Amino acid sequence: MRKLILFAVILTFVCVSLGCGKRPKTVISIGKIKISADEFNSAFNKSLYGNPPTMERRRQFLSTFINRKIILKEALNDGLDKDPKFLEDVQFFWEQALVKLTLNKKIKELASGIQISEKEVKDYYERRKAEFPGKNLAEASEQIKLELFIEKQRKALDDWLTSLAKKSAIRMDYKSLGLE
């Protein structure tokens, strides 16, 4: 599994670096490392230096960017990209990033289908009047809608996760996990 993930990361890096086709013009060379303007600009825009994007901040970022690439080159020369701890960290990061991307996509999808009726707002207000001291229904309405939305979104996400679990053949050895 680690080798597959490392292969995917390397393939992605190679495709991004080489553009999987026509090679863009090199604007920075650090030994065998070739960097295009697009790669530099993308890194700059994603960095803390990129907001606001001034000429001075670009110059500061360039120094940091080159230092980072030099350190990466040294790490590769030392073979640290093959270190088991590094590969474990890459796998963990890959999993976390993929889970985050999937959750964000699903949360947006679920949110688009959530409706809050005026009856739900009124019923919620009546059940929890004490939580809105000094506010009538109209004054508490927006807060209630937000709370109901979050509640429904959480429920929809839980239902989705339950449906995924039902589709998966999950087996656990509770004793070996120290849970028995």
Instruction: Note the gap between the termini.
Output: 29 Å
Structural classification: mainly alpha
Helix content: 55-70%
Our count of domains comes out at: 2
By DSSP, the count of extended strands is 2
Strand order in the sheet with the most strands: 1-2
Instruction: Give the radius of gyration.
Output: 25 Å
As residue ranges, the low-confidence spans are none
Tell me, briefly, the overall form.
flat
SS field, number of helical segments? 6
Average per-residue pLDDT, rounded, comes to 88
Measured by DSSP, the beta-strand proportion falls in: 5-15%
Account of the 3D structure:
It is a single chain. A two-stranded antiparallel ribbon has the order 1-2. The protein has helices at about 1-20, 35-45, 55-75, 85-110, 120-125, 135-165, and strands at about 25-30, 35. It is flat and about 70 Å long. Helices cover about 65% and strands about 5% of the residues. The chain folds into two domains: about 1-85, no CATH class; about 115-165. Helix 5 (about 120-125) crosses helix 6 (about 135-165). Strand 1 (about 25-30) and strand 2 form a beta hairpin. By secondary structure, it is mostly helical.
Question: How are the SSEs placed, and which strands pair?
Answer:
Blueprint: H1 2-18, E1 26-30, E2 33-36, H2 37-46, H3 55-77, H4 84-112, H5 118-127, H6 137-167
Antiparallel strand pairs: 1-2
Helix pairs in contact: 1-4, 4-6, 5-6
Task: Tell me briefly what this model is.
With 180 residues, the chain is mainly alpha-helical.
